[in-house]
Known about the structure:
alpha/beta
Amino acid sequence: MHEALFRRVALALLLALPALPATADEAGTAPHSLVGGLREFGVTANNTVHFPEVVFFKTALGPPPSAFKRRITEKKGLSAEPAKPITILGRLYRPDGEGPFPAVVLLHGSGGISAWNERWAQRLRDWGYVVLDVDSMTPRGIYRHNTLGFNNPGTQPGRFLTPFMRAGDAQGAASYLSTLPFVDPERIAALGGSQGGSTVMSALAIPGNPNSPDSIRAGIALYPGCYEYNGFNRPLLVLAGSADEFVSAARCEMRLAALTTGLAPTLKVYVGAHHGFEFEAPDRTHWGLRLQYDALAAADAFARIKAFLAEHLN
């Protein structure tokens, strides 16, 4: 697709998000609707509307493929070579004032942009952070896919995403943020949920990406799928639920405990919590697996995340 046309189409799609119908999406997450009232889309107590700005930036050149990445991709007959940079887009949320502010790269799960992103973007903005909410799907022509992106409706052959591929999106977003005059380039973190959490972990994993600036100073991963890592080169907070039916908190705990290099990540497992435990919405299922809000786990997670960002960015 010609880049100018892509920009026009992507801009129209992103600006239309708040007007989408109030029906549940295929990933089982809350719909693009007025969930929780107008505050969901930026209306605060004083009735000030904070609409995001649509921005475009280049992804970072992907890191050299790890042994694990080679195994899972070459087994499918696909190339494991680093992904080339593409133009990608996101929505930029900015606190009131001149800054410079700390910033957070926000990364969606395998279901794509949803109300989950809206809530986190507004929450982080209210905490005083610039937020770049990254859309990894629209620029690649992907509607929806599962974690590995194979054999799922809406995914065309050869169009799929893994956390390793999306690490370039996270690094590219951080690099873009570092060029903005109202962002402090030394205070940029990344936060993601589900596959977005795995993306955060991939972006911070040792040996790192020699092809892009190391702009991300800390990472937060909510209920991620944990892969094989050598270690992490930045502070990392991982929050998971012991009853998660999508990913294994026990496997994550085992793999993180086995690390011998880099900075030791902080892992908190909430007993009895499910996938999406911090997202306030009715209980729901996807692929027969449960997603469920847990008020106690959510409150603790918000406090931990706020303190973690304050410690490493302020």
